[in-house]
Automatic annotation (TrEMBL), chain A:
Broad class of where this protein is predominantly found: membrane
Annotated source species: Rhodospira trueperi
Gene3D superfamilies per record: MetI-like
Record flagged with keyword Transport: yes
Assembly: The complex is composed of two ATP-binding proteins (CysA), two transmembrane proteins (CysT and CysW) and a solute-binding protein (CysP).
Protein name according to UniProt: Sulfate transport system permease protein CysW
InterPro entries (UniProt xref): CysW_permease (IPR011866), MetI-like (IPR000515), MetI-like_sf (IPR035906), Sulph_transpt2 (IPR005667)
UniProtKB/TrEMBL annotation, chain B:
Subunit text: The complex is composed of two ATP-binding proteins (CysA), two transmembrane proteins (CysT and CysW) and a solute-binding protein (CysP).
Keywords: Membrane, Sulfate transport, Transmembrane, Transmembrane helix, Transport
Molecular function GO terms recorded: ABC-type sulfate transporter activity
Record's GO cellular component terms: plasma membrane
Protein name: Sulfate transport system permease protein CysT
Residues that span the membrane, as ranges: 21-48, 68-94, 106-128, 140-164, 196-214, 220-243, 255-274
Automatic annotation (TrEMBL), chain C:
Organism for this UniProt entry: Rhodospira trueperi
Record-annotated ABC transporter domain positions: 3-238
UniProt GO MF annotations: ABC-type sulfate transporter activity; ATP binding; ATP hydrolysis activity
One GO process term, biological-process aspect: quaternary ammonium group transport
Record bears the keyword Calcium: no
The name this protein goes by in its record: Sulfate transport system ATP-binding protein
One Pfam family here: ABC_tran
NCBIfam families according to UniProt: 3a0106s01
GO cellular component term of the entry, any: ATP-binding cassette (ABC) transporter complex
Matches recorded under InterPro entries: AAA+_ATPase, ABC_SmlMolc_Importer, ABC_transporter-like_ATP-bd, ABC_transporter-like_CS, Mo/tungstate-bd_C_term_dom, P-loop_NTPase, Sulph_transpt1
Alphabetical list of PANTHER family matching this protein: SPERMIDINE/PUTRESCINE IMPORT ATP-BINDING PROTEIN POTA, SPERMIDINE_PUTRESCINE IMPORT ATP-BINDING PROTEIN POTA
Phylogenetic classification of the source organism: Bacteria, Pseudomonadati, Pseudomonadota, Alphaproteobacteria, Rhodospirillales
Entry keywords, A to Z: ATP-binding, Nucleotide-binding, Sulfate transport, Translocase, Transport
Length: 287, 285, 353
């Protein structure tokens, strides 16, 4: 029977209407308090002094420099982790080999590490007392408290996004399509481009979207390696922190509102992509 | 004559006609090594370099222990709150139909998408004694911001989606007939929820709880603005690492980081074991 | 316990009404089959009786008392779900004992008593020794019997089974069918089960209710519904059939201008009708130009276990007629494809067009 079309609201097995109403009420209140209000507060504080102050805050030279750096970091980190994600997913999903489960766990590792520790490990590696620090200093190469360090820390924290989205997707799809293409005489690269890539494009985009959101919004890891040099090694989230700590709240929230818009755009695109991907619900847990 | 049983040769991988295994696996391993392993093993190397006694005297320094206690304690309380409310949110989203449900469903991911620093300053502004929520609470004599309670509020925010997104799919796949079976056997709704639905959700709830807890332990950006960061009171372990680094006390930072990592991995190990045990017994995760 | 279903109506959003004023009485101690195609409303009817579905109108009476407003929990029915709906996190014994341990404290038997009762029921369904297994560790047939034991544990007044053998393979299904009949004869519960398999319904039940489009087409014992179908639908649903459009004149049915009737002695008003006959009621007969009969061409001759199946083309009829000739009838050897043959209907039913 068409069980899916049954209206469970009228089911004699469900909760009484009163319990249902109370539960919905509690949940709505909880979400309003913990999710909606913080978001609203960002925009309310950002425009407290009017649009002119907002424009001034976000077009101030340090803010623009932070914006440029954040974009630069994302432009480097996202494509690198995209290539990594596709390569890892290809190896893991299309082949059977020993140690696969361990490899998958290792790819997920950055999600289980505190962002501050993600930054710390690079300080230990490249810092003055670190393993490579003295050698780098001797050759005049700056990594820590400079752009390369920020990029590396961002790479670390955003590494799993694309891979963990593609691995289950490509495992579900199996290898039959690729084998068919190869049996028809297509080359490996041609097969990947014309058969595999179209199959995974939405999942790929989904992973890139989440990867980008995190890359632009990362705070803890970047904060540790950046050195907070204004106009040079400040990303947008770090700039927000500095403004806030200087008690320049309207400017801090104005710049923060840019990141909030990024989050909203990400959520909208994510929801749209989930419909494409046929996720029943947006069920992929994020970082 | 011996029977012609072909024993498969021991191989790293099963043969396949698809190309690119060596290339992609090689790239994957190299990249992982450069970005993740070498830096992480640097932490281990530095910890070992400190020597056993020095390491533990740093790791067990009173301020460190207190910071770890605050981080783990606040994360635990927040994860419990999230387990309760996250399950309720998942239930309402899956089982009920009401206007705005899809919007709410999408909004649950906000903490994943909103940069932690933004969440941090926003929560601090809301719960500050002159904030939208802090003001009425202050009139009642309750302080949230700049106290450990503030840390919990921030961790509830960042941890909520973990519980909702792990419970939701399980709830969706839950067979309604099982609930109907309980009803035909005479069980009332409360009894059905308690002995039929909750046990079925327990593994997912536990997974979500652990994910939220693990995230809470390491969380930094959303906490530091609201916590007040008073040593021994509301100073979290990740912040103490940052402070030690700023003091150029790399050794202390290393020790705290190593202890946090060890505790987090122990946690993940436990949850994996619970899940494996569940799968073996009930045929599901 | 006698069940009376009175004028039950139930519709689902955006669908044709699932139950259209359906009425039915199940006698006390009877084993009744609800037989019908998928979407006919038979499962919905079963769920309405159990209280799992609230009807839009009508009444359910248990032993003459109105049970329409009693909750599922209070109806005390044993319901066996198609996919068993066992509690996966409970052992077999806990599953069977659930109904008893869910009772309010005042009526709850002791822990030991519940365990004893569960063991007793597991013995009844022949699953001794599996008390501590989990459902995931059982075969389909075993799960089915656990579900049955669980339903019986609450000492239900009626037992309702939704496609009880639907999810099992053919061999297990046959064994369980016989076993369920034995169990019913021993326990004497009023039992209603839903099935779409006419063989199952005929073999197992005391009476069959044939459901179509939310209504009861016919209720009767298996021989009754098989031999005296009340409608063309019932006839067709009970087995293979040949339908012939005929014109009835004076008790004789004529096919499309043939001078000889295909059947006679028919007690219906003159006019267009349909004559239905099973393949084994269409027999080869000598073409003696008297009495009833039908000429045609044998098109295909296929041997099946114990019989020969012949497709026969009849001039002026767009469908082939199917004949099942028993192998013991030596005439089949003379039938060749392309040859003219002559048949007679030994038994047929006439329904409106």
């Amino acid at each position: 029977m068409a069980r899916g079309t049954r209206d469970w609201r009228r089911s004699p097995v469900g909760e009484p209407a009163l319990a249902r109403g109370v539960l919905i009420g509690v949940v709505l209140l909880f979400l309003a308090l913990f999710l909606l209000l913080p978001l609203v507060a960002v925009f309310a504080e950002a425009f407290r002094l009017g649009p002119a102050a907002w424009i001034a805050a976000v077009t101030e030279p340090d803010a623009l420099a932070a914006l440029r750096l954040t974009l630069l970091v994302a432009v480097i980190a996202v494509p690198l982790n995209l290539v990594f994600g596709v390569a890892a997913a290809w190896a893991i999903a299309k082949f059977e080999f020993r140690g696969k489960a361990v490899l998958i766990t290792l790819i997920d590792l950055p999600f289980s590490v505190s962002p501050v520790i993600s930054g710390l490990v690079y300080v230990l590696l490249f810092g003055g007392g670190g393993l490579l620090g003295p050698w780098l200093k001797g050759h005049g190469i700056e990594i820590l408290f400079a752009v390369p360090g920020i990029v590396l820390a961002t790479l670390f924290v955003t590494l799993p996004f694309v891979a963990r989205e593609l691995i289950p997707l490509m495992q579900d799809q199996g290898t039959a399509d690729e084998e068919a293409a190869l049996s028809l005489g297509a080359s490996g690269w041609h097969t990947f481009r014309t058969v595999t890539l179209p199959n995974i494009r939405w999942g790929l985009l989904y992973g890139v979207l989440l990867c980008n959101a995190r890359a632009m919004g990362e705070f803890g890891a970047v904060s540790v390696v950046s050195g907070h040099i204004r106009g040079l090694t400040n990303t947008v989230p770090l700039h927000v922190e500095i403004l806030y700590n200087e008690y320049n709240f309207p400017a801090a929230f104005a710049v923060a509102s840019l990141l909030a818009v990024l989050a909203l755009v990400t959520l909208v695109l994510k929801t749209a992509l989930e419909a494409r991907l046929g996720h029943g619900t947006p069920s992929r847990a994020g970082p | 004559m011996r029977a012609g049983v072909v024993k498969p040769r021991w191989r790293i991988r099963k043969p396949s006609v698809l190309p690119g295994f060596g290339l992609t696996l090689g790239f994957t391993l190299t990249y992982l090594t450069l970005i993740v392993f070498i830096p992480l093993s640097g932490l281990a190397w530095h910890s070992a370099d400190l020597g056993w006694d020095a390491f533990w005297s740093l790791a067990l320094a009173p301020r460190t222990v207190q910071a770890l206690r605050i981080s783990f304690g606040a994360a635990l309380v927040a994860a419990v709150v999230n387990a309760v409310f996250g399950a309720a949110v998942a239930w309402v989203l899956v089982r009920y139909r009401f206007p705005g449900r899809r919007l709410l469903d999408a909004a649950v991911d906000l903490p994943f998408a909103l940069p932690t620093a933004v969440a941090g300053i926003s929560l601090a502004a809301l719960y500050a004694p002159n904030g939208w929520i802090g003001q009425p609470l202050a009139d009642l004599g309750v302080r949230i911001a700049y106290t450990p309670a503030g840390i919990i509020v921030a961790l509830v925010f960042v941890g909520l989606p973990f519980v909702v997104r792990t419970v939701q799919p399980v709830l969706q796949d839950l067979d309604r007939e099982v609930e109907e079976a309980a009803a035909t056997l005479g069980a009332g709704r409360a009894r059905t929820v308690r002995s039929v639905i909750l046990p079925a959700l327990a593994p997912a709830l536990l997974t979500g709880f652990t994910l939220a807890f693990a995230r809470g332990v390491g969380e930094y950006g959303s906490v530091i603005f609201i916590a007040g960061n008073i040593p021994f009171v509301s100073e979290i372990a990740p912040l103490l690492i940052v402070i030690r680094l700023e003091e150029f006390n790399t050794a202390a930072a290393t020790a705290i980081g190593a202890v946090m990592l060890m505790l987090s991995f122990a946690l993940l190990l436990v949850i994996n074991m619970i899940q494996g045990w569940n799968r073996a017994r009930f045929g599901h995760g | 316990m006698e069940i009376q279903v009175h004028d039950i109506r139930k519709g689902f959003d955006g669908h044709a009404a699932a139950l259209n004023g359906l009425s039915l009485t199940v006698a006390s101690g009877e084993l009744m089959a609800l037989l019908g195609p998928s979407g006919s409303g038979k499962t919905t009817l079963l769920r309405v009786i159990a209280g799992l579905e609230v009807p839009d109108g009508g009444r359910i009476l248990f032993d003459g008392a109105d049970a329409s407003h009693r909750s599922v929990q209070d109806r005390n029915v044993g319901f066996v779900f198609q996919h068993y709906a066992l509690f996966r996190h409970m052992t077999v014994a806990q599953n069977v004992g659930f109904g008893l341990s869910a009772r309010p404290r005042s009526r709850r038997p002791s822990r030991r008593e519940i365990r004893r009762r569960a063991e007793e029921l597991l013995a009844l369904v022949q699953l001794q020794g599996l008390e501590h297994r989990y459902p995931a560790q059982l075969s389909g047939g075993q799960r089915q019997r656990v579900a049955l034991a669980r339903a019986l544990a609450v000492e239900p007044t009626v037992l309702l089974l939704d496609e009880p053998f639907g999810a099992l393979d053919a061999k297990v299904r046959k064994d369980l069918r016989r076993w369920l009949r034995d169990l019913h004869d021993r326990t004497g519960h009023t039992t209603v089960f839903v099935t779409h398999d006419q063989e199952e319904a005929l073999e197992l039940s005391d009476r069959v209710a044939i459901i179509n489009a939310g209504r009861v087409e016919q209720v009767g014992s298996p021989p009754e519904v098989y031999l005296r179908p009340a409608s063309a639908f019932v006839f067709g649903f009970m087995g293979a059939s040949n339908g012939l459009p005929v014109e009835v004149r004076g008790g004789a049915a004529f096919l499309n201008g043939c001078p000889r009737p295909v059947a006679d002695g028919i007690r219906v008003a003159d006019g267009p009708h349909m004559v239905y006959a099973r393949p084994h009621d269409v027999v080869l007969a000598p073409d003696d130009e008297t009495g009833t009969g039908l000429r045609g061409i044998a098109e295909a001759v296929r041997v099946a276990p114990g019989l020969v199946r012949v497709d026969m083309a009849v001039p002026g009829l767009d469908k082939r007629l199917e004949l099942d000739i028993p192998m013991s009838d030596a005439h089949w050897m003379s039938v060749r494809p392309g040859q003219p043959i002559h048949v007679r209907l030994t038994h047929c039913h006439v329904f409106g067009p």
